[in-house]
Amino acid sequence: MTNRRDKQNSAAEKANPVSAVTIAGVRFGNPVIAASGTFGYGSEYADLLDVSRLGGICTKGLTLNPRSGNSGRRIHETPSGLMNSIGLENPGIAAFIEKELPRLRNLGPAIIVNLSGSSVDEYTDGARLLDETSVDMIELNISCPNVKAGGMMFGLNPDAAALVTGAVRGALRHKPLMVKLSPNAPDIAAVARACVSAGADALSLVNTFKAMAIDIRTGKPVFDNISAGLSGPAIRPIALRMVWELWEALRTPAGKAPARPVPIVGAGGIAGAEDALEFLMAGAEAVQTGSATFVHPQTMIEIIDGIEDYMTQHGLSNPGQLSTRKAAFQGSVKTAGT
Ligand SMILES: Cc1cc2nc3c(=O)[nH]c(=O)nc-3n(C[C@H](O)[C@H](O)[C@H](O)COP(=O)(O)O)c2cc1C
Q1: pTM for the full model?
Q2: Structural domains of the chain in order of their starting residue, each with its CATH number
Q3: Which of 110, 113, 127, 136 has the most beta carbons within 10 angstroms of its beta carbon?
């Protein structure tokens, strides 16, 4: 435990304290986090960028037992986007804890583990194992569109989302729980409220959009699974709109659900500092970057530098000041009530 704190402190010292953020009790040296599934377990990128400068690293989706992932084509590029059908290939949680976590912990940034499963029991058994480790936060993946059972099926419906969120929250004694939402849900605000009522400490959005491509030489879908998840700049304006709306939805009671604003982590096509600033201005406390790292591994470092430069130029002392929505929202509530 002491060891872990020492390492966290050294990462925080390296970071510019101006852009540090605390989300659900976890300190990130800056608000830029490597998105799940796009950064391996961190050390794979150590030769390409200074990984210790990142605010956080989110692991590939992990399941209780190892999975080999989907058959056939797994990646397909589209204009301004990327489709993937990886299918949660991973070594299983026990092997992650034994082989990957010590290396990942040594890199410095806060560690988020993306947890997936096919059943509520699989999620809770995995959560119990991770709860006894040095990881900083669990990101509950109820939004993967590339698996046949579980995954996104839990994230489309508020009752199913609340069931798995409540069960995992109950299984965790030490770690904060962030729930990763699906942009494919018919009512993402209803799913978000249900997760928050069931105990989510933070929300992240978005995972990939369900999409497809056909190979016109064969007339058949490119992916064995037919559909795949779309990410990259193509989804950015939609993801931004969802973050904007969710920020307000969490502050607006609906039906029997009380309003409980939890921190939001925004993702979707962020490829530069200006993109990240838009999400932070929309109310996100931090951002995740995924697909852009494949194109240009230094992207996240440039985003961190760009956010810090913007803050310095505008005399801001923490990233929370980037969002002017708090004051505007309080103003609009007042107006509505008078
Ligand atoms: C190749 C690939 C693998 C991914 N794997 C996961 C995963 O295991 N778990 C998860 O929650 N999201 C996964 N995602 C989604 C990303 O974490 C992110 O939410 C999404 O790609 C949007 O961000 P981006 O446009 O910056 O890539 C994956 C995305 C890609 C491109």
Answers
A1: 0.93
A2: 2-68+87-209+231-337 (3.20.20.70)
A3: 113
